[in-house]
Task: structure prediction
Amino acid sequence: MSKNTLSIVTPKDPKNEILTPNDLNKSGKQSHTFSNLKFLYFFRNIDISAPSLISTETLNSEKDGENHYSIGVLVKMDKIDKNGKKFSKEEAYKLDPSKSLDEIVAEVMELLEAEGTHEKSRALLLETQDSRKYITEELLKSNRIDKGSTLLLGTSPDRLVSHILKLLQKRESEAELQRGEIADYWHQNLSYLLAYSEDVVFNRIFITKNGLKILLSIDKNVQESNFQKILTILMAFLDDNLIDYKDILNHNPEFTEMLINILNERTSNGDVKLLQKTINLLERGLQEVPAVRVQIFKLLNESPILHTRISDKDENIQLASLMLVNSVLFMSRDNEQIENALLNKLKQRIFNSLIKLGRLREENAVGTFQRIYLKLKYEKDITSRGDAQSVAQQQLLAKVVKNLEKDNWESVISRNLSDHPLFEFQTSVGILPLRCLESFSRKHRDDCMTIITNNATRHKGMFPIVAAANEVVSILISSLDFKSDQIISSEYHELVFGISSESFEEIFAAIFLAFWTSWRDAKAVMADFKKVINVLKEQVKLSLTATVSTIQQFKKNLAQNNYHSLVEAQNIFKGDEDLENHKSVLLVKEHLRKEVKKVVEENRLMLMERTCKFTDANNKKSFVYMRLDKSRRHISIDTKSSTFEGAFTSSSAKHVQIRNMLKVYQGIETKAVIDKGAKQKRKMIDYSLVFAIQHKVAEGESQTMTLVAENATTVNTWVDGLKSLLGVSFFPSESLTADVEHLLQLRLKIQLIDFQEIQIPTNFKPIESLQPPPKEWIYSTY
Result:
């Protein structure tokens, strides 16, 4: 039997039926009104479906073939006998959660011999080690009252809200108070509201009784002196999805301007929490109201305040400011371009903060900025294909020629072009290679002239400058995981994100020169281009496994993993490469790919049939257990608290049919879903581990469940598996692609074994020497 007390809390003054925060903060071991009650003991009910756990202490029952659970309580009362002696009396009771909440409250009050107070003014509160909240009908019927909980009997939320609103509206008392007393008066009343706003039941009733309007109508001077409390309360309403930011603006149109003024005027010396709440609310408004986005974008471009806050001495302000900047940049539109100078300035601020602090506590926030920074600075180049009509691209070509003091583009690449040179950049990486070549021709002019001289004297061994630049940029983007939702956080990514505004171009130059060195060492010709590329990929891969804290270190790693050290390993696979790249083999590979992909997807579904545990992205204290039932075409989902120690059971789980699933989100796509209602929204989440499932709950209504996996393998397994079940075309994860390629290689090698001993003739017999076909094969057209 558990020794956790199930006790009641009542007001200190029996005449006052409203609990103050001080009353609620009591340990709950005293009863101020009911002298006959000392303690109630609570033990967790055991599910009847688990016979091995049944004990004589359970109060479960089974009626009509159905399982019923009840809350077992043991009431321990101190009583006085006829002789005046105290004695303890224990009685066991069970509360039936199938009854209405009002009935249970009345029953508890009767157990406590507290019939004197009307049950409508009382409510039950559930207290755990981490929180205290009102018990609702849903909580009772969902069997989520865990072992170790404490039950409190307190003022009903409806009565409590009415009392708080009365205090907030009691303006006539201000005339009788001095200035300091007014501040104390509002400080006390807002403190009460702040304490109660942690409970969603209280908040819901507060909003329905027009509490938001009353809160925002408090006198401006009073409001400023207690602004931190008001902002915290507003964030609680937003986090509970009871209001939107636009609801605040409807009652106070100048609210955003007020927040921006606080951001400009306050310092972090004594207003850290106020500044943090201000930035958090601005971020929330940024996501929900387009007009707020315009205001904050203007603030970022025209005011130094956000730049200053990123370098604030307080880490919490730094982090909140950085996340606000991330949101601004991520949500910027095409007509809201961020200049490179401003981006580089922001990058320098963040880099200085990293050096100053050694490392920010929240690495993911910095990683997110890096990814957004690279996207804003280079994505336009990647998405722009070579266009002969583009004046800007023609000017970029002219810069390369001018840097090398050449007459035209052909003299730079030492070959004749049948088409316009910009057509050479109609690849998946766009004109980014051209931009990198412009930087290379400017900063590494001597190396560039050496390559051009080689091309002029060795026609067969001519180094394909443009093709090499395209391949190097592809390798660089792949190593950065540039287009994915992965958060950039490695040393290599910090190197690209480094002090120089052209770090990306400098890394390109290092890899490009390594390519040229390998080409020269191999005495390669155009037919060897793909083989040298394979060596370069291995060279870059090995160089990244070592320390790369500086560009010089990266160049040193490339030199150590040179062509000569890798060529022996490359030659081992030379014969296989030639065979695998044969046209006929490629056709067989494409034929097998669909079959192999189906096998890998089936493997993912098998893994999903095992129970997996996830964290609820909107509630850190809840775990979500999920399992696929492939035969029934549904997913079993069970939500448990973080204190849950039992095993997953399908009987207590809800089932979501595959046909009712609408969409599966992954990575950064889930950001908007999490921000809508997560209390930890302001803390950075590793979006590489997040996915969301949107499913239909009723006609025209849908619900989105956002989950955080324990590792990348789990999230990729579930996302790939769910998308394959939905039957939609999707871009597979890297792990699924790798498994498909690996299995495809094995299948291909098995099939090629049959051809090992077959000698394919080089010369074929003349047609005349062949036997004529059978007559029945000939079709007459007469």
Observations:
- Residues 1-67 have pLDDT under 50 and may be disordered.
